């Protein structure tokens, strides 16, 4: 990850005190810091990678039997367990609720496990289901898949519930959509993407975008994760 690369460059600068090219480690660390904290660059690269926002009017005219919502939006390890703790990806569930209320999707299919060897009760799909029930969402219009551990398994397990001949509306983060879309198409699903969680902005260039920013580091972290994930899936033949 970017912060790790910066840290390693500067750490090496202090460790290799007798190396005659030691000064280049300091220069490298500084250059990486400038690049990875530059919000203009982070915003540009993330916008180029993520899937563009769907045309809502066009989707309204289509109607979908299933909206497939991928999890990855809560902290299941936080106590107490009497509520749901959402993270920055909460836009996924908010958009899914809106799509159902507007009649664009009929049934919400929630996919995502995440349980560990020590905690079998941490399936995120069930955590989301509990939240929906608490806000009186019509639970007869919800299907849970709580065994998948990654996007590949989410796509594979979906075939047990949804016919590949049925066009689905896939709901996940815009940065994650290229990988998720590839996985579901690999399983022969007819997929209409509905990206959410846009961390980029469409404003014109302003001076603050060139100042060091932790937001830029966050965007680069997301990009690195998705680039590595997409590459690994492609090499493994999952896409």
Automatic annotation (TrEMBL):
Q: Which InterPro entries match?
A: Cell_Envelope_Assoc, DUF218, Rossmann-like_a/b/a_fold
The biological process GO terms on file are: Gram-negative-bacterium-type cell wall biogenesis; peptidoglycan metabolic process
**What are the protein's UniProt keywords?**
Membrane, Transmembrane, Transmembrane helix
GO cellular component, alphabetical, reads: plasma membrane
Which residue windows are transmembrane per the record? Answer: 24-46
The residue ranges of the DUF218 domain are 87-229
Recorded hits in PANTHER family, A to Z, give: ENVELOPE BIOGENESIS FACTOR ELYC, INNER MEMBRANE PROTEIN, PROBABLE PERMEASE
* Record's protein name: DUF218 domain-containing protein
Q: Which organism is it from?
A: Marivirga tractuosa (strain ATCC 23168 / DSM 4126 / NBRC 15989 / NCIMB 1408 / VKM B-1430 / H-43)
């Amino acid at each position: 990850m970017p912060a790790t690369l910066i840290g390693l460059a500067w750490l090496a600068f202090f460790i290799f005190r007798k190396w005659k090219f030691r000064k280049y480690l300091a220069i490298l660390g500084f250059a990486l810091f400038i690049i990875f904290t530059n919000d203009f660059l982070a915003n540009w690269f993330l916008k180029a990678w993520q899937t563009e926002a769907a045309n809502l009017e066009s989707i309204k005219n289509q109607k979908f039997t299933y909206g497939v919502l991928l999890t990855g939006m809560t902290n299941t390890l936080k106590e107490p367990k009497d509520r749901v703790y959402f993270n920055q990806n909460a836009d996924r569930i908010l958009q899914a609720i809106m799509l159902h209320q507007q009649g664009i999707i009929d049934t919400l299919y929630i996919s995502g496990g995440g349980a560990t060897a020590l905690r079998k009760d941490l399936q995120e799909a069930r955590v989301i289901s509990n939240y929906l029930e608490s806000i009186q969402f019509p639970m007869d219009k919800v299907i849970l898949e709580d065994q998948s551990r990654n996007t590949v398994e989410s796509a594979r397990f979906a075939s047990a519930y949804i016919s590949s001949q049925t066009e689905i509306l896939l709901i996940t983060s815009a940065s994650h959509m290229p990988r998720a879309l590839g996985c579901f198409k690999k399983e022969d699903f007819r997929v209409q993407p509905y990206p959410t969680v846009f961390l980029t902005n469409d404003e014109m260039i302003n001076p603050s975008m060139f100042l060091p920013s932790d937001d830029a580091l966050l965007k680069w972290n997301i990009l690195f994760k998705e680039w590595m994930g997409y590459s690994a899936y492609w090499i493994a033949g999952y896409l």
